[in-house]
Amino acid sequence: MPVKKRLANLVGKASALPARIRRLILERLDFERAKLEAENSILQAKVASLAGVVGELGVRYSESSREYEDKILKSHAAASLAGSDGPIRHPDSWVNFSDLSRIRDYKPTYRFDGPFVNGNHKFYSECPTGLMDIGFCINVGIDGFLSRADALKLYELAYFCEGEILELGTHKGLSTSILCQALSDARSRHFLETVDIDESANREARKNVKNRPGGQLARFNLIDATRFMDGLIGQNRKFALIFVDHWHGYQATYEAAQRSKKLLAPGGFVIFHDFNDPSNLDLQSDYGVYRAVIDSLIPDKDFEFYGIYGCCALFRKIS
Fold first, then answer.
1. Which homologous superfamily is 84-317 in?
2. How would DSSP label each residue in the chain?
3. Where are the domains of the chain?
């Protein structure tokens, strides 16, 4: 029942009481009514102020992404003239803030004959989809939220990886299994460190990955991702590839991006899942991957944007 209606009911009930008591009750009710109206005015002012802040943030990030889009589009010509050596950049795949729903196709970062590295890589271009009734989610026997383009990019990056891999967000082992399979197919001697805080999902992930190709290359860690990265930094560990997919919030992503700067070896890649998720458009939601990456890596001259594939954004540490 609305507050005003409840107050009116109370006033009606008070009219049947003795005059002195009725007067005291009515004075108290008038006081509470005035108090509620004042609080309501303050609340409306705060909501209006918050709406203004949200609007300003939207303009800020939209302008930031437009400025960066102009920058990378200008660099696209230079990238296309850079010769045939080294990894391939796709600066023209940049997605502006207002276009985050545009899922990008897979394109190779490394140079190899044909459209796919091998048959196992090709599998992810035609594997079943529709897991959990989500049209784009691949369905390969392990729960997770990856598109075909996401899976293709993760496999390729791990296959050609020349060092250790760090995965933030094991979940139930879908991306873990893809990364391990690629390492196994490449006959790599490197390992995958994967971390998550969900004990139940982690137990399931261990079972899912154990009997998959390369499963023995995964090292499972049950700990907060930021704390784990801080520990790795303290050990002076270096990685050639970092996959960030533990949480889609701003703070968690920003902390991961900042720590990636110390954990990546020169030439290493960091790839952010959910970067191209349209949920980032709602500045009042808990999604903040796009904004966190904009704030952390875009201003850093040691990092270069390499491309967007599916809903993943790829950056490389160039020095």
1. Vaccinia Virus protein VP39 (3.40.50.150)
2. --HHHHHHHHHHHHTTS-HHHHHHHHHHHHHHHHHHHHHHHHHHHHHHHHHHHHHHHHHHHHHHHHHHHHHHHHHHHHHHTS-SSSPPP-GGG---GGGTT-PBPP--SS--SSSSSSHHHHHHHHS-B-GGG-TTSB-SSS-----HHHHHHHHHHHHT--S-EEEE--TTSHHHHHHHHHHHHTT----EEEEES-HHHHHHHHHHHHTSTTGGGEEEEES-HHHHHHHHHHTT--EEEEEE-S--SHHHHHHHHHHHHHHEEEEEEEEETTTT-GGGG-TTSS--HHHHHHHHTTT-TTEEEEEEEBTEEEEEE--
3. 1-82, 84-317
Mean pLDDT across the stretch 89-105? 89
- What's the whole-number mean pLDDT along residues 133-154? 95
Which pLDDT belongs to residue 145?
94
pTM above 0.85, yes or no: no
**What local confidence, expressed as pLDDT, does residue 48 receive?**
59
